[in-house]
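Chain entry —
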Amino acid sequence: MYKPEQLLIFTTCPDANIACRIATALVEAKLAACVQIGQAVESIYQWDNNICQSHEVPMQIKCMTTDYPAIEQLVITMHPYEVPEFIATPIIGGFGPYLQWIKDNSPS
């Protein structure tokens, strides 16, 4: 069975400054090859039995599967939310040289 080597992790932050701090820490620690920070989105969600609405900044983290535990720990430690969004999906295909670049720039 194929076991993906790379992951794409999605998370959101309450603002761009926090997103930049987390992204920089991940890349400096060589846990992620690249972190993309998107434009603010409007999120509507349920929290503590209330419907809430807030601006959030989406992030995409490209990394190696083996680094997932360390990435989760770093993000959860730096993140201000009590329960931040943190979703990992395997990369099951892609341009070979790009996937190699992820591997080369986030060595486990």
Remarks:
- The two ends are 22 Å apart (CA to CA).
- The chain has one domain: 6-105.
